[in-house]
Amino acid sequence: MVAAAGIPVTDVPFVSIGGGIGSFVTVDYLRIAGVTTNRIAVLSNLDYPWQTYEYLTRVSQIPRPERIRSDSASRPDNIWGFPSYALAEAVTERTLAPLWQVLIEPMWADFYTPKAGRVFAALERESKRIGYTTMLVKGQVRMVRKRQGGGYFVILTPMVGSTPTKRLAYRAEFVHLAVGYPGLRYLPELQEFRTAHQDFHHVVSAYEEHEHIYEAARTKHLVVMLRGGGIVASRVLQRLMDDRAKHGLSTEIIHLFRTYISSAHGPNAWNRRKGAHGFAYQGFNYPKSVWGGQLKSEMRKLEGDQRAAKYKLMGGTNTPYRRRWQAQMKEGRESGWYRTLAGTVGEMRLEHGKIVSCVNTSQGMAEIAADFVIDCTGLEADIAEHRVLADLLAHSGGGRNPLGRLDVERSFELRGSASGPGVMYASGATTLGGYFPGVDTFLGLQVAAQEIADDLARRGFCARIGTFRSIRQWLRWARNKQP
Amino acid sequence: MLPTLGGRIQTRLVLLTVVGGVVTFIIGPLLPISAPLSVVYRNTFIILATVAVLGIGWECIYHFVMQWRWEKDWPTLFGLATGIPEGVVVWLLLRAGLIPGISGTVPIAAFVIDFGLVWLAVWLVANGPMRVPFIRWRFHGGRLV
Questions:
Q1: Domain residue spans in chain A?
Q2: Residue B87 belongs to some domain of the structure
């Protein structure tokens, strides 16, 4: 039927959809497991795997020289995590400081985290090593459908002018979905304000370009309101505070938290997370042991409501405790230019060129006027906002997990989507709520990739990476030789 | 590696056996002990076995302590610093003559060098190179089987 519709069909046994870091890490595993480039296709509208990640980190105030929030051994370019980023930095920059930091973290130093630039450079090296571009097909994936004869058809709209037809079909036995975040969602009152006033300048999301705010702050006194208490709020706050100190500015910052954390919190002594001044503190997105320790092991056994409850316990917005930020915020609180408050916003209006937010606090209504509002809440859209996922939920048997995302098995096989011998896998943010919590992180993508590669090895698609292959392949990685 | 209790015990036993065994074998002739090499090896390997066996108990204690940490993690320094109490306990047992099979006496300098080097080697391997031959190890709480 597909061929009859004039759509050229290409046979590739493994197709990864997305082309971001999730696809890259999975393909990296498979290449190391002995799969040749002609047996893999990555369908994506991205030129390189870290393109979206780099854009998002840059606009949310982590340019290449700054450090991201990720562990030293979470290397998406190196499936072994050895040497760690800290060791690599120590060697290339001829300093013991990163190793010392790893040794004494987190008690006597902040967690070591790599610079964004180092992460991207290493990804570029690995990308060349595994021949990533030879597997990449640029275009927009439209849908994935089960084939009557087993396996799947993936329909792609290629880049304009790159092919004689407007559609291409890929016939695959295995499909991997790594489409990332379906999209951003704004706080409703911010969305209403933006729509009503057609103002996308004074009320912005931290994930949008908003350099104009920092530039404006250099030319006049500004009051900036921040919304949210996560890592992005911390980075934006740091940028405002850094600029204030560096250029001698008078910027005032009003930080509004929906949930204000004033102290350590949790149901009992062995489940208590640190917190203060509005923030919940945690080194990384999740408690560290979700990536391989006790929490990973516990979560793997939980189903339905029990799993959702455990997610709730370890969830909630949080940010790392960094000594530099603490010192800056303390100075701001003492000098009065950084103020925090807790509440929800009922209404926003424009008054004398200022954005007035009516905040419901525990002490009653407060009206806060600001020149700019930066939404750092990072709310995510529903998975059905993504065209391919919506189609999948409607037509290919995919279901939702207790948190409403894609329901995957422990092997990251998408439940209900098997097609004869064909299997569909999903990894990344769209699978949050499954048996493994840290899905939308570098290490989480590697955990998923390992499970997928092992499952594919059981099905005979590739070799299982055992001890000898692992050592041999690591040596090839170290010498920058093709897998 | 972020350990589970089973993973802790497996990792300890395997690393002490393999890495500890190799280090003990290499440093045996270099230790300041005035005894035939066969006696030195006998004593040092018995000490190594003692660290492994007592370690099962220690790991249960560490696991218990870890429950008070929100992240259920075990910082790098903890893995190194726990060598001090463990070494002291083994030394006290050695001095009290409670470790069976030891011939003669083991000088404290020899014990410190032996125990210290084995501990350091095991800790270094566990914090990096171990991930190369055992690619699933770190995601399985330190379990090897």
A1: 9-183+382-478, 185-283+318-379
A2: yes
Q: Which two tokens stand for residue A37?
A: 């480039």
**Does the fold of domain A185-283+318-379 match that of domain A9-183+382-478?**
yes
- Cα dihedral B113, B114, B116, B122 sign: positive
**Diameter of chain A measured on Cα atoms:** 73
Tell whether B48 is covered by a domain.
yes
Supply the pLDDT for residue A247: 96
**CB B70 to CB A269 under 8 A?**
no
**Contact A270/B at CB under 8 A:** yes
Q: Is residue B129 part of a domain?
A: yes
- DSSP element (H, E) containing A379: strand A379-380
**Rounded CA gap, A296 and B33, in Å?**
47
In a domain, B145, yes or no: no
* B132/A105 touch (CB, cutoff 8 Å), yes or no: no
Beta-strand runs (E) in A50-207? 136-146, 152-158, 168-172, 174-177, 184-185, 203-205
- pLDDT (tens digit, 9 = 90+) per residue, B104-144? 889 999 999 999 999 999 999 999 999 999 999 999 999 99
For an interface test with A, the pick among B11, B71, B74 (most A C-beta atoms closer than 10 Å) comes out as B71
Q: What is the tally of helices (H) and strands (E) in chain B?
A: 6, 0
**The predicted structure's pLDDT at residue A181:** 86
Work out the average pLDDT over A194-201.
90
In DSSP terms, which residues pair with A345 in a beta bridge?
A359
A220 class by beta-carbon count within 10 Å (0-12 exposed, 13-18 middle, 19+ buried): exposed
Structural domain of B129 = 5-140
Buried b (16+ CB within 10 A) or exposed e, B42-73: bbbbbbbebbbeebeebbeebbeebeebbbbb
The answer to whether the CB atoms of B73 and A80 lie below 8 A apart is no
Whether B131 contacts chain A with CB within 8 A: yes
In chain A, the percentage of residues whose pLDDT exceeds 90 is: 83
Chain B: residue nearest A477 by CA?
Answer: B132
List beta partners, residue A380: A184
Residue B68: closest C-alpha in chain A: A270
Q: Calculate ∠ Cα A11-A13-A18, nearest 5°.
A: 95
The CATH class that applies to domain A185-283+318-379 reads: alpha beta
Q: Which of A28, A80, A439, A476 best tests the B interface by mutation, with the highest count of B CBs <10 A?
A: A80
- Alpha carbons B78 and A7: distance in angstroms, whole number: 60
Question: CB within 8 A of B119, min separation 6: which ones?
Answer: B80, B83, B86, B87
For domain A9-183+382-478, the CATH architecture is 3-Layer(bba) Sandwich (3.50)
Contacts for A464 with CB less than 8 Å, ≥ 6 apart: A33, A454, A457, A458
The pair of three-digit structure tokens given for residue A18, joined into one six-digit string: 């997305």
| Confidence class for position A186, pLDDT limits 50, 70, 90 | confident
Q: Structural domain tally of chain B?
A: 1
Collapse the DSSP code of A339 into the 3-class scheme (helix H, G, I; strand E, B; otherwise coil) and give the result. strand
Q: Sign (positive/negative) of CA torsion A192, A196, A201, A202?
A: negative
